[in-house]
Design a protein that fits this description.
The complex is a heterodimer of chains A (about 200) and B (about 375).
Chain A: H1 3-11, E1 17-21, H2 27-36, E2 39-44, H3 47-55, E3 59-62, H4 65-68, E4 77-83, H5 92-102, E5 103-111, H6 116-125, H7 149-158, E6 162-170, E7 173-176, H8 182-188, E8 191-197
Parallel strand pairs in A: 1-2, 1-4, 2-3, 4-5
Antiparallel strand pairs in A: 5-8, 6-7, 6-8
Chain B: E1 8-12, E2 16-17, E3 23-24, E4 27-34, E5 44-48, E6 74-75, E7 80-81, E8 86-90, H1 122-129, H2 131-136, E9 141-147, H3 149-160, E10 165-171, H4 179-193, H5 211-224, H6 228-234, H7 254-269, H8 272-284, E11 305-311, H9 319-330, E12 335-341, H10 355-370
Parallel strand pairs in B: 5-8, 5-9, 6-7, 9-10, 10-11, 11-12
Antiparallel strand pairs in B: 1-4, 2-3, 4-8
Helix pairs in contact in B: 1-3, 4-5, 4-8, 5-7
The chains are: A alpha/beta (about 200), B alpha/beta (about 375).
Chain lengths: ~200, ~375
């Protein structure tokens, strides 16, 4: 399981009710179910991924986060997880609001567009950055609303969203982000993980 | 039609009060089983059939000599694996394969009930079938499953008996029959009534059979079970055993010949009055209405795990109507999974060889069973 999922799993206590939005093939769901006794549900847009989840015995609903989160009642999950998908939505702000409505807390991870390799790629090559976490070309990328760790920080502040914990991942290294090291983490981390609440 | 042989029948002694207000006593429920019930009696699956189905789910139907209606899904090593599970299916009330229906003799007149048979509902059907649990000594079913009207029975069953099934699989169905659904059913009923052999439903004592009306009803309904794309790919404008158009009203096109055939084989195995009664039961089905308009309340008392399946090309019970059930369940935090299967075979997809559907069904059941 990738490092990002380890970090997310560590943020979730045992025996909680969790919704994984964009759960993919259900690797994180399966881990939480087996190791944290999580009452876990998934929402996934891809039919083939939904099938993979069913084959793993996971409860998944085929659907689209922008349309289908509204069916869940307020605060019906203790955590809602959104892993590296925020940037792919037409309206990320609406999705964040929905995550925070449905979940008591939300865990959101973003590929950091402030990462130095991304900046360097654009600076030197003058073309849209391609990295390990952002492997697609500009014309076929699902990512239409890229942001940096700093952008997300400022966004949360402006919307009065509480950030309980923010973590920076750079390869295998995980470190805490705070106001004083924000600029540095925004430069060296390729992924940001935020535990938020409203 | 001989339904005496090869038909297992449970005579229900307990009186059943029907939605129409009448109470029936000592009525037969014809059923069939596949596989064997284990010692713990925790491997039973109650399957509900659709409008024109019967209790003969798989293998050769002993009455029609054709394959059972769900042979693709049910059998040894199939999605509903009869090596593992004990499958029970009953002919619905109002049907014509041995369960209490309009072709049964009315003790007051000595002739078939015909249209004197009480109008029954999906609720009446599942209440009648519930007696099979007592008959087999099953406290809790491992699963209940069915497509189309079978799916409606699944929803009604878990609503009536919330702790009697561990898993619940409504397929290609709806919680409330739409105006379009009712319209198509009415077309079928009017075709039957327009047949002069129908005799206001009293055809058995007059020794006639409204074959033409029933065949037209089946032809019209059959179109609604297929998709435009599926029809176009299978038939297009292909001609039936002729080089060119004949400038007449014979079946020039293959699709015409196919529909005529579907109509003609249907009348050999189905009763016209049963068709009227069962379509009426479908039309009356509105689960939310039973709960003052709140569908979620139908499921509030159950801890069962739901798995809802729809098909992309099903325009009779479209994905959105299946999703409405998912939404009602999610709004009360129920355990529900949902998948829409890609298929161009229309509503009939659930009866056919659609690998993505069959594997999803199998995986859901087998994984849920090992969690026991």
């Amino acid at each position: 399981m990738k490092n990002e999922f380890q970090v997310i799993a560590e943020l979730i206590e045992k025996d909680k009710k969790v919704l994984d939005v964009g759960c993919g093939d259900g690797i994180l769901m399966e881990f939480l179910k087996n190791n944290k006794n999580t009452n876990i549900r998934g929402l996934e847009i891809s039919k083939s991924k939904v099938q993979e989840c069913i084959a793993k015995g996971l409860t998944v609903i085929e659907g689209n986060a922008e349309k289908d989160l509204k069916q869940f009642p307020d605060k019906s999950f203790e955590y809602v997880v959104l892993s590296q998908t925020l940037q792919a939505f037409l309206n990320p702000e609406l999705v964040i609001n929905e995550l925070l409505r449905v979940g008591k807390k939300a865990i959101v991870t973003i590929p950091n567009f402030g990462y130095w390799r991304v900046r360097l790629h654009l600076l030197i090559k003058g073309t849209m950055p391609i990295t390990k976490t952002l492997p697609d070309e500009w014309y076929n990328t699902p990512n239409i609303h890229m942001c940096s760790i700093k952008d997300f920080f400022y966004f949360a502040k402006s919307r009065n969203i509480k950030i309980f914990k923010s973590l920076a991942i750079n390869n295998q290294n995980v470190s805490t982000i705070n106001d004083s090291n924000l600029t540095i983490k925004n430069f060296f981390a390729d992924l940001g993980i935020f535990l938020i609440e409203k | 039609m001989n339904t005496e042989n090869n038909v297992k029948t449970l005579i229900v002694k307990k009186p059943l009060k029907l939605d129409c207000g009448k109470t029936i006593n000592e009525f037969p429920i014809a059923y069939e089983t596949y596989g064997s019930l284990n010692e713990k009696k925790d491997n039973a699956i109650l399957v509900f059939h659709a409008l024109t189905g019967d209790q003969f789910v798989t293998g050769q139907n002993p009455i029609t000599k054709k394959d059972g209606w769900w042979s693709y899904a049910v059998g040894p090593d199939k999605a509903i694996d009869t090596k593992k599970y004990f499958v029970i299916c009953a002919n619905v009330m109002g049907g014509c394969m041995g369960s209490f229906g309009p072709s049964h003799e009315d003790p007051n007149t000595g002739t078939a009930f015909g249209t004197n048979f009480p109008v029954i509902t999906i609720n009446d059907m599942v209440n009648a079938q519930y007696n099979l649990l007592d008959h087999f000594g099953i406290d809790k079913l491992f699963s209940i499953a069915g497509g189309s009207m079978g799916g409606m029975q699944v929803l009604q069953f878990i609503s009536n008996f919330p702790d009697k099934a561990k898993t619940v699989i409504p397929i290609a169905c709806t919680s409330s029959h739409s105006a379009q659904n009712i319209a198509f059913n009415e077309l079928g009923r009017q075709a039957i009534a327009a047949d002069s052999n129908w005799k206001d439903g009293d055809y058995s004592s007059k020794n006639t059979i409204p074959n033409k009306g029933l065949a037209v009803a089946r032809m019209a309904a059959h179109i609604t079970y297929l998709s435009k794309k599926g029809l176009q790919e299978k038939f297009g404008r292909k001609l039936q055993e002729r080089e060119d158009l004949k400038f007449g009203f014979d079946a020039d096109f293959q699709i015409e010949s196919y529909l005529r055939y579907q109509g003609s084989v249907f009348v050999d195995r189905f009763d016209a009055n049963s068709y009227l009664y069962i379509t009426r039961a479908m039309d009356y089905f509105d689960l939310a209405k039973q709960f003052k308009g709140n569908l979620s309340d139908a499921f509030r008392d159950t801890k069962a795990k739901f798995f809802i399946i729809s098909f992309t090309s099903d325009w009779l019970y479209p994905t959105q109507e299946n999703k409405d059930i998912v939404i009602a369940l999610n709004s009360i935090g129920a355990n529900v999974g949902f998948v829409e299967i890609e298929s161009d075979k229309g509503h009939d997809s659930f009866l056919l060889d659609v690998p993505d559907f069959l594997s999803a069904l199998k995986n859901f059941l087998d994984k849920s069973y090992t969690e026991n």
